[in-house]
Amino acid sequence: MSRPDDRVLSAGPGCRVPASEVTWRFGPSGGPGGQHANRVNSRVEADLDLTAARGIDDEVRTVLIEKLGSTIRVVVDASRSQTRNRHRALDLLEQRIQEARETRRPRRPTRPGRGAVERRLRAKRQRGQRKSERRGGWGDE
Length: 141
Prior knowledge:
It is built from 3 helices and 5 strands. It is an alpha+beta fold. The chain has a domain at 4-101: Double Stranded RNA Binding Domain (2-Layer Sandwich), CATH 3.30.160. A hairpin with a 5-residue loop joins strand 1 and strand 2. It is elongated.
């Protein structure tokens, strides 16, 4: 397995952050005790300061800071291995940066088509017909 610090977080053009920019903190994972509970610091907190990170163009940096804030924090304690948790934290950081870079096109409101309108009106007529057939006839017997 490669070392996490050798990796580059890539989120498209203008955004290639070396993993050495990530600040790491480690601690014991939560939950009930167990065989490795008091010995292994497998919980990983990864912080990426977007204001000071190298490898981000200025216009990309402003978009990221606007959407994510000045720092991104990820906490992972899924595995008992600190190395696996570090790799997972880098994956999550990269995923968050990529999602923040995506721009969604605004929804263009549309109207229902003629066929849909006709089907809806036909269904309403059928429901009304059914209800009118149920009515009356109580006093005729």
